Amino acid sequence: MNGASHLMDFLDEPFPDVGTYEDFHTIDWLREKSRDTDRHRKITSKSKESIWELIKSLLDAWSGWVVMLLIGLLSGTLAGVIDLAVDWMTDLKEGVCLSAFWYSHEQCCWTSNETTFDDRDKCPQWQKWAELMTGHSEGAGAYVLNYLMYVMWALLFSFLAVSLVRVFAPYACGSGIPEIKTILSGFIIRGYLGKWTLLIKTVTLVLAVSSGLSLGKEGPLVHVACCCGNLFCSLFSKYSKNEGKRREVLSAAAAAGVSVAFGAPIGGVLFSLEEVSYYFPLKTLWRSFFAALVAAFTLRSINPFGNSRLVLFYVEYHTPWYMAELVPFILLGVFGGLWGALFIRANISWCRRRKTTVLGRYPTLEVIVVAGLTALLAFPNPYTRRSTSELISELFNDCGALESSQLCDYINSPNMSRPVDDIPDRPAGPGVRIALLQLALALVFKVVITIFTFGMKIPSGLFIPSMAVGAIAGRIVGIGVEQMAYHHHDWIIIKNWCRPGADCVTPGLYAMVGAAACLGGVTRMTVSLVVIMFELTGGLEYIVPLMAAAVTSKWVADAFGKEGIYESHIQLNGYPYLDVRDEFTHRTLAADVMRPRRSEPPLAVLTQDATAVEDVEALIKETDYNGFPVVVSRQSERLIGFVQRRDLTLAVKTARQKQDGVVSSSVVYFTEDPPQLPADSPQPLKLRRILNLSPFTVTDHTPMETVVDIFRKLGLRQCLVTRSGRLLGIITKKDVLRHMAQMMNQDPESIMFN
Amino acid sequence: MNGASHLMDFLDEPFPDVGTYEDFHTIDWLREKSRDTDRHRKITSKSKESIWELIKSLLDAWSGWVVMLLIGLLSGTLAGVIDLAVDWMTDLKEGVCLSAFWYSHEQCCWTSNETTFDDRDKCPQWQKWAELMTGHSEGAGAYVLNYLMYVMWALLFSFLAVSLVRVFAPYACGSGIPEIKTILSGFIIRGYLGKWTLLIKTVTLVLAVSSGLSLGKEGPLVHVACCCGNLFCSLFSKYSKNEGKRREVLSAAAAAGVSVAFGAPIGGVLFSLEEVSYYFPLKTLWRSFFAALVAAFTLRSINPFGNSRLVLFYVEYHTPWYMAELVPFILLGVFGGLWGALFIRANISWCRRRKTTVLGRYPTLEVIVVAGLTALLAFPNPYTRRSTSELISELFNDCGALESSQLCDYINSPNMSRPVDDIPDRPAGPGVRIALLQLALALVFKVVITIFTFGMKIPSGLFIPSMAVGAIAGRIVGIGVEQMAYHHHDWIIIKNWCRPGADCVTPGLYAMVGAAACLGGVTRMTVSLVVIMFELTGGLEYIVPLMAAAVTSKWVADAFGKEGIYESHIQLNGYPYLDVRDEFTHRTLAADVMRPRRSEPPLAVLTQDATAVEDVEALIKETDYNGFPVVVSRQSERLIGFVQRRDLTLAVKTARQKQDGVVSSSVVYFTEDPPQLPADSPQPLKLRRILNLSPFTVTDHTPMETVVDIFRKLGLRQCLVTRSGRLLGIITKKDVLRHMAQMMNQDPESIMFN
Question: Is residue A139 less than 8 Å (CB to CB) from chain B?
Fold first, then answer.
């Protein structure tokens, strides 16, 4: 653990790569922490020397806050730009603004300001494609032309998106959250959070969302924010050179990402804490909150939705809910849980099929086919034709008196003279019936198409499609309950809470509860889900329905499998992720897990004073272990330390090149003072400085649950196993993960990295 | 770690106390966790046997939620009852309701409903003492009589409070948060969360707050909620028999306590996470949230404030803030930080004086003297006469058009015809000037008296007095800024953001910012503080000022000393609390900290097969260590395990009593199979079952920062130190804490418990 620090003391600039990690390897949290403390100690002691050093040390102390500020500013800006671009390009599929082609439908109609509120959808400046090309806006021909243009744009956007991803940044695909979870848990994937990924992901995200595919921008925004975080890390050596500190920044960046995705800073911090982060010290909590707030305020000052709200679907309800309504809310929770479980199973088996069969070889074709199918099926239905966030926004909203939506086509009683906020329950008109049918079709469509969409080679988030499924189901249930309450005032169960002429049921609330339930079922978020929804409604009032649905949904979904969609994708990809939430309850001991097994050759060890340089080189060549224990002698097997393969290779190589007299027969010494050697023996090689003198050990009798706990909490890469002071074997993170997979009747070979 | 589990297997009911802890001792988190896993495993395997066992296992799985529900219900109810009682008894100091003596002033005037809103303070049913006794409500005589009655009631209440605490439950005094932090970090203080403490703390809290002392009920409410949590733990063996699981429940209970104290469920959860909890798994987060919500809704259904709000000082502001206002906000932050630092120093040195001098011997007298002084000085000033929460509520509130308070005595322009919400800045009238003077006096009074009040032998919270200090300062600053902006419209800095006739400055917001700053300075809360305040205002709008003040206040206060008031009191009491936030950055190694030191006698160890029962008994008698390492032999010093003193004592005692043939010369075996002994040798005593075969070890070269990290994250009691497989020494939690104290130039002897 203090290998790196010792090294720094003895040599000025010894091996530039010492203490770094290879790609697709796990970091050692304790070592990173130790290195940061060394750095800090050095700066502190230097700061007493001169004013300049003091200023430098203050700057260093402040750099964390600066990084947070920059992350907040950039991710807020990017989110705003993405929102505006998506808005414009989604509308481009329908038509174009004559006064300025870069205006979206809504902006176009705002600027041509003659129209009143009611018919703002019909403004002369905005022309659908058919109207623009043929001059006719009505009729079958115009419909077909608009249909064609819609599909064409969708194909174009999706083709562009998948091509850009494939050519420039393959890591830009997917939601990114599974990988970010893995990275935050201490894994290295170089380039995953790089500048190219940031750029390409931002662009292709816009294209993918605009193409009308059943995907959202919320998950990828977390990835984008983390890329920003990584980008700004490189400005400060404190973060760029320490993988542990870097991950603190990334945790905060994830919070900023969710903050701008949902306009929920507190929810974002809790999401980062609950869902993605691994090591989350309190300092990070505070900084995450700062980054999330800056991001939210940046986004608000860009004001992409023109309503000074952070999200499209901010809502305010006016009527309370009643105890009896908990029954439909819980039913929605059950639905959400079932949908979550079904979705995860279906999506994972489809992704596995893609990975293993010929299907995976044509990702571009796959995206184009799915996009084409989506566009073809989506256009005829007004609820799927528009963007999914708009759909959710409409479903969440309560029907006001001025609402022109088909969903609000209720039959008004003639003597309505109440204030706008308090409209009593009314019977549904024909528009509502049509809307219900269309919504039902939209539900089936979304459920099926999302399964095939998530996991394709384009940026794709899952929050919005899940919420859409839940919101549709919720709204249908809500209208059903409302009509039941209206038509059956005399039923005992209804009589108690709903007088005739009162506004009892808020279908929009049902939509929101349904959305929470489905999102919960898919992701298994709990507190952060409820807090995000709470920040959308802004009232404690509705927390209980949301919570009831979230709890039910989680329980129902958990009954079919403990993993959420992100964990499932981590497993699918074989990343070495040690979930904090998995409880290991088996009775195995460290001795059952450690290598070497009984049938295997003995552990590859080095002795402290009896190994020649050529033996070391042979060991490095013949094995691919990440490190070697060093013992007093092969007989006593008493452990004195652990040396990393990477450090050992570098040290031997450097010594061979630069240190005179080091030959193949030179003896490698890990002891403090090599003995006096005969004059004719070759120059010894002293390597104590790269030896970690405090390797982590457990006894062979240690229960595996304790070992798992230690790996999790201390973020170890490996741990040595001893019995009464003798070295018996080694347990690596991969061994732990494979053992856990085996215990859960999964394929241990699915864990691929170390 | 698996000693306990082994024991369970071999003997049915061997030593009833095995695996429990003595009072004022530290628990072993790993062992507790291991025991819970064993329990869980047993239940799971049994649940497959019969339907009845399956139901039992389901009940067991649900018990966590049941406990949370009960905690929420009880702590919400208690908070409501306390609020109502405090309300009534505070008013009792002034007068009594003729129609029903159990009505508070407000309730009394509500029920006598003839009065209009404006003069609701003057209702015939409510009589001040002077009026009741002499019939006169005006004049110097009446004033003096009222004054006397006020002081008399204060003395009576405080005398009752201190007597009840001293006679029935000494643990009921103070805020309880330092002790709860220590308990949650794994310390045992029996009775601290007991039934008596719950009862007495609830009653005396009402008395103490009603007596008018400068203290609040918020901190003690956390203690009360934790007592509820402990009470309900005893219903389920899952929690009552496992100190680790019990602490999960207590963490959630703390969240419920803050939730009802401030009406802020999310803030409560974050408070528990940030401030009091030590081990906070994600499962606990979700359950805490549930408990906090149930508590909040229970309190709301009791509705103690008659406004369907959870707290007296819920506010809604109508005007935004401007960038330039950040300057006074940050100044308030500086004030808060200074006040926090000053308060902590002064209070700690006063408490230390109380502890070490004759003063501590007369706690009852002290309370009565302080209460008398407080009442004497408080009565003449209307801002200190009323209860502190009412004061804060008034300071937070913006001046509406209907406001009759002196603070809102602005000079209205004659042509005022605006809506109520949007009153422009106006010049201050004479009432405001008088109010400012009185507020300044109140500020000085509160600052001084709070230092002497916190730490007396009565329940006393610190949140309300701190917030009051900040709110007074903030309101004064706010009015100052408002008047400056009104009178100097032409100043460049003001011209930019404040047109004449506009409502630019909200003095109530300044009060809130000041309150946050002072609370932050004293407690060093960060995220939870901002979230609690956010939940009080209910708008993202005002988070930036609050955050700016909180950050400034923390930085300023930290410059004078890192510890908040709770940590300082923990230190004062010498509790073994290993703060998660302290960064250990010194270069010491495990070898520097371990016992025995070089000059000391060697470590007391047992050998695995060569110690006689009498030697063991002698060892137990002569030393007071909490446990003994077991080695292969004294020569090789190779460690095989660790045995707890308590278990060893019990095992030897039980064997002596119940096992035939065990005599003083019997050999104690810790090996798996004792060798075949000659026929005439005494019966051996096999103790492998109480041996912990997986003691935690580190090498002597391990940096102390890593050791501290391990102790913190794994919750160890002790850790053995080895070098190349040989046992060298032991490090206990106490050693770690003493070493940390020494490194920070504090008295290591102040850490008193192990």
Answer: no
